[in-house]
Specification:
Length: 561
């Protein structure tokens, strides 16, 4: 998203550390993004007055806003976002949840980014954006001690005085502590230094050979730079995460000298996730720039009250909490172009033959569908049947063969030319939402087309407006309750094309279509997709047919109001 308005909403809660805020302050200055920090301190949150005293240089360079504003992207960097903050921001723009620990927000946010391994929750992206320094590998500044930006328990001070009697006294150590800086200890070994703050700390952690830190973003950044770290944590929450991620820890209290050196002497960067997770990284700006994150609304009822069912890098699948519809929210910037390649190269890649090679097979399926139509409706020779997305015309040809008056419509000009010139059947290059031709219709059909429309409400209202009472509306679509979905939901959704914006389920069809004045007269469960079952055997096919679990189905509806 180029030149978009991005709003950062960092954690400013008391006892929640400073890492998330500092990260957002730096992004604000670097990328010219807004950052939300209220003016006054409250019972549970620090205001701008407090942070300006703590980080004056960062605050001065950041683009501070004191009240919520509308944004193209709202980045919630909260660690665990309170629900009141979520409700405050959800209507101001699409939400990106960054390293979010609140599972509820992970269900509701438009996009979820995890930068901290192990990635145990469902996320759209695990592209990390740490400040990995490409240097000569020389860690010449000794040991870095940083036990958080707040350190209310004064763990730094306690460790400092305990370590005065350890061999660590003879090692180069940098202690970062506002408390120690303002209240100098009586003893300061000549190789030790005390600093209140290190400007641009994330870019300098690689200068140190080792670290003693509480769990947080600075610790993670140190591991990303291959700097071994020993944790000393202020709470059971931090300690639990530290152990879960395999990071050596001293626990939540100052250790004895023996315990310290048992861990210190063999300290290394943990194997596995920590050495493999930071190989391919990109900045948060690069990630946001590659996406088209929009407000999430149900294509049927237009509600934004939906929980995510599955996340992928450039798409989310939601279940609407109001109407129950299952749908896709595509986040990529590239839209599908239905050109000649769609029916030839793309079709052949998926089905092993081009659309025209498959013409006779599709034409035969069309004849079967027409037999079902004839069971419920008689041919009206004075009216037409509009086939939306007619492609190269196998169904309009079947209609003509069976005595109907077909009209084709497709957005691909090459396909329309083939129908009009090659088959001699009336067809138009158009979008159904823009259709305004004075052609009297008996029926409308859409075979594997309906799922390509983002706004289902606009589409079905348009179809309804074109038909007389008693007119038929028939369509086919992939089955969101079929055998592929039953066996593995994630694989089913991952295989679903990025231009299939609705996932229809037979159990919901009657309710959905009745909202637009259509009564379902017949539902026919059809085939399954062999390409989704590389080792598919006839038994699976038979079972899916017997139990109505085919991967596709057809709906035959009538306008009754």
């Amino acid at each position: 998203m180029v030149d978009s308005t991005v709003v950062l909403v960092p954690s400013i809660r008391k006892d929640n550390g400073t890492g998330h805020l500092v990260r957002c302050l730096r992004w604000s200055a670097k990328y010219h993004w807004y950052i939300y920090i209220p003016l006054l301190t409250t019972k549970d949150k620090y205001g701008l007055d407090y942070w300006n005293e703590r980080f004056p240089e960062l605050i001065d360079k950041a683009h501070i806003i004191r009240d919520p504003i509308e944004g193209d992207i709202i980045i919630m960097d909260q660690r665990e976002c309170p629900l009141d903050d979520y409700h405050l921001w959800r209507n101001h723009g699409p939400l990106v949840a960054l390293d979010e620990g609140n599972t509820e927000l992970r269900y509701w946010a438009q996009y979820v980014v995890d930068t901290i391994p192990p990635f145990i929750y469902q996320a759209n992206s695990i592209q990390v954006s740490w400040n990995i320094k490409k240097g000569n590998g020389q860690h010449d500044k000794g040991v870095l001690v940083f036990l958080g930006g707040e350190d209310h328990q004064q763990l730094t001070r306690q460790l400092y005085y305990e370590a005065l009697s350890w061999p660590l006294k003879k090692t180069k150590v940098t202690w970062i502590s506002k408390d120690l800086s303002e209240n100098k200890p009586d003893i300061l070994p000549h190789k030790w230094e005390i600093l209140s703050y290190i400007k641009d700390l994330d870019n300098k952690v690689s200068d140190y050979s080792r670290g003693i830190m509480s769990y947080g973003l600075t610790l993670i950044n140190s591991l990303a730079n291959n700097t071994p770290v020993l944790a000393l944590n202020p709470s059971s929450y931090h300690e639990e995460i530290t152990k879960m991620q395999g990071i050596p820890s001293l626990g939540q209290s100052i250790p004895t000298e023996k315990k310290f050196y048992q861990l210190w002497n063999d300290l290394e960067v943990p194997e596995g996730i920590w050495k493999d997770s930071f190989k391919n990284h990109r900045s948060i700006k690069q990630l946001i720039g590659e996406l088209n994150i929009t407000m999430n609304t149900c294509p049927h009822c237009h509600s934004n009250n939906a929980r995510v069912l599955q996340r992928f890098p450039v798409k989310n699948y939601y279940r609407c909490s109001d109407c129950g519809f299952l749908y896709l929210n595509y986040l990529g910037q590239k839209e599908k172009i239905y050109s000649k390649d769609y029916f030839f190269k793309d079709y052949e890649k998926q089905y092993g033959k081009t659309y025209l090679d498959d013409f006779e097979h599709i034409h035969k399926m069309g004849l079967d569908r027409i037999q079902i139509i004839k069971k419920f409706w008689t041919i009206d020779e004075k009216k037409n049947v509009l086939d939306i997305g007619c492609a190269y015309g196998p169904f309009v040809k079947a209609l003509k063969d069976q005595g109907f008056n077909p009209v084709g419509m497709d957005i691909a000009q090459d396909a329309v030319d083939y129908v009009t010139k090659g088959l001699g059947i009336e067809a138009y290059q158009d979008n159904i939402l823009d259709w305004n031709r004075n052609i009297e219709l008996q029926g409308v059909t859409m075979w594997y087309v309906i799922e390509h429309f983002r706004d289902l409400r606009a589409l079905l209202n348009k179809v309804r407006s074109l038909l007389p009472l008693g007119g038929f509306f028939c369509f086919s679509t992939p089955n969101g309750e079929g055998i592929s979905r039953k066996i593995n939901l994630k694989n089913f959704l991952q295989a679903s094309p990025d231009d299939h914006f609705t996932i229809w389920e037979p159990s919901l069809c009657k309710k959905i279509l009745m909202d637009y004045g259509f009564k379902v007269r017949h539902i026919r469960i059809t085939g399954h997709h062999p390409e989704r079952f590389p080792k598919c055997i006839p038994f699976k096919s038979a079972v899916s047919q017997i139990f109505g679990l085919g991967d596709t189905f057809e709906v035959y509806g009538e306008k009754i109001k």
